[in-house]
Write a structure and sequence with these properties.
Number of strands: 4
Pfam family, one: BTG
Order of helices and strands: HHHEHHEEEHH
CATH topology: Actin, Chain A, domain 4
Distance between the termini: 50 Å
Number of domains: 1
Family: Belongs to the BTG family.
Protein name: BTG1 protein
Radius of gyration: 16 Å
GO cellular component, one term: cytoplasm
Strand order of the largest sheet: 1-2-3-4
Strand content: 5-15%
Helix content: 40-55%
Number of helices: 7
InterPro entries: Anti_prolifrtn (IPR002087), BTG (IPR033332), BTG-like_sf (IPR036054)
Structural class: alpha+beta
Shape: globular
């Protein structure tokens, strides 16, 4: 379907970003990372199939939002399960607060509840809507590395089994 073709860049950008976060955390082999990225792309494609509206890019944005916030996003969890990573392990590897918006023509993310929103991918929309000036996001480039330093509070409680 044409929608599927349109989503390809956005989905691969989002999957590559999460994969990069896992790679930066260390301890996962390249083969596993490649498998994770492909599984996540497939899960996203399936999840977004009927929720992708290039003519109304913000329509369905909440549905497409990938979120880690004391709960693991099910799509990331599913892809991680394919390479044998538990949710507990994911919470150690990924930022404890991550929001990733995957919309037609734009993929952006925020680490932390009040971090700045950083754009990973942006393409001009048909019809030439004016996009944000570039200066406003140059500071974001390496912010995801710093996001790791915030203590992942109260996740250790989840691993305790009584």
């Amino acid at each position: 379907s044409p929608a599927g073709v349109g989503m390809r860049t956005e989905i691969s950008t989002a999957a590559a970003f999460v994969t990069r976060l896992l790679r930066a955390a260390g301890g996962i082999g390249e083969e596993q990372l490649r498998c994770f990225r492909e599984c996540l792309q497939e899960a996203l494609r399936e999840h977004y199939k009927h929720h992708w509206f290039p003519l109304l890019p913000s329509e369905g944005s909440g549905y497409r939002c990938i979120r880690i916030n004391h709960k693991m996003d099910p799509l990331i969890g599913k892809a991680a399960g394919m390479i044998g990573l538990s949710h507990e392990r994911l919470f150690q590897l990924l930022p404890s607060e991550l929001t990733l918006w995957v919309d037609p023509f734009e993929v952006s993310y925020r680490i932390g509840e009040d971090g700045s929103i950083c754009v990973l991918y942006e393409s001009p929309q048909p019809g030439g809507k004016v996009t944000k000036p570039l200066e406003s996001r140059t500071s974001c480039k390496e912010e995801w590395r710093i996001g790791r330093s915030s203590p992942s509070k109260n996740y250790n409680m989840m691993t305790v089994s009584n």
